[in-house]
Amino acid sequence: MARYLMEVDAGARTSVLRDTSTGVTEVAEFYEVAGGFLAGVTTRGEAEPVAAVLICNSLHAEGLKNFRRETLLSRRLTDAGIMSHRFDYRGAGNSSGCAEAISARTMVEDMCAAAAFLAENAGGLPLGIVATRMAAIPIAVALADLDPKALVLWQPVIDYSKLFRDVGRTKGLQDRAEVLRAEKEGRRIEERAPIADQLEKNGVADVMGFSYGRDLHETFASADLGKGLSKTAAAVQVIQISHRDKVQQPIAELVEAMAGRGQSVELQVVFGEEENWWFRTGVQSFKTEEDRELTAAVIDHTLTFLLANLSAAPLQSGF
Fold first, then answer.
1. What's the half-sphere exposure (Cβ side, CA atoms, 13 Å) at 316?
2. How far is CA 243 from CA 41, 247, 275, 278, in A?
């Protein structure tokens, strides 16, 4: 007997995948948002859900890095009777639009549209939100409209200017290495202009093969994560994902500021080896995300927090 059953409804623009061994159902579908449409996946178990979670991905390479973790989280949530929804922003993934038009503003609009779509399917259930890396900044703006009971931030970008400098430095080193390699092979290529110069001249830059628009840069540069989080009544969990167990200063300051205002906030530090295929040197043994201790710890911390704050069923271990 087949473990997976799939149904496609072209008229309703949906595709349904059922895992008969776990009872997990995943519905992929398109729905309208201002000026286009979003592509999303709703995951639920066999029993009636008791809560709902919106999962907001980051962008570009960071989005790809956390995609599998977010998928695993959505399936684990079903163990506790929690349905979830993951989606692509306009200009990314399977949604409409172009990458150059993505900004913090459009991400806020898409988050609110995705939350409204989830609410339609969830029927007024308690809402939780998980946001990864760059998604932390726009979700902090959207909180005023979404009013979740619980918010989890995976390694949130707190200082965008530092992220931009780091990305620019890495891109510059890669471009320089490409020029030197070409010279060694007897070829001549021109070194690309810095990201900031590309944005100023063309309105868009090539960052690791992804289109990075001026609107994205300017709206994130003017954003303030701490200010956005300062007014939420949601219980907040910040998960630091790092190579070492030392708490990073920006995260420590964010958590301390929230606690000082009397907000409900907790910090979890998950550390270990991050395995990237382009940095294979020194990695002793490759593991899939399902088998990695770091991924399991991130998901377990997230689940435990959401269950405590969304009044869901007891946690079941394992993927």
1. 11
2. 31, 11, 11, 17
Give the total residue count for the chain.
319
Q: Could you tell me whether strands 235-242 and 150-154 are parallel, antiparallel, or unpaired per DSSP bridges?
A: parallel
In this structure, the strands spanning 210-213 and 204-207 are antiparallel
| Integer Cα distance of 171 and 196 in angstroms | 11
Token output for 37: 């449409």
- The whole-angstrom separation of Cα 176 and Cα 130 is 37
Are 137 and 228 in contact by the 8 Å Cβ rule? The answer is yes
Q: b/e per residue, 49-79, with b = 16+ CB within 10 A?
A: bbbbbbbbbbbbebbebbbebbbbbbbbbbb
Tokens matching residue 60? 């570009």
List phi, psi (to 5°) of 318: 90, 155
Nearest to 55 by CA among 125, 111, 116: 111
The answer to whether 85 and 116 are in contact (CB under 8 A) is: no
Indicate the average pLDDT of the chain.
88
Question: Does residue 279 carry a pLDDT above 90?
Answer: no
Judged by DSSP in three states, 236 sits in strand
Q: Is the pLDDT of residue 187 over 70?
A: yes
Residue 14, strand partner residues: 9, 29
Q: What is the pLDDT of residue 315?
A: 44
3-state secondary structure at position 211? strand
Per-residue pLDDT tens digits for 94-116 = 999 999 999 999 999 999 999 99
User: 48-85, pLDDT tens digit by residue?
Assistant: 999 999 999 999 888 888 999 999 999 999 999 999 99
Q: What is the model's pTM?
A: 0.90
CA dihedral 294, 241, 267, 53 (to 10 degrees): -80
- Which residues are registered as beta bridge partners of 261? none
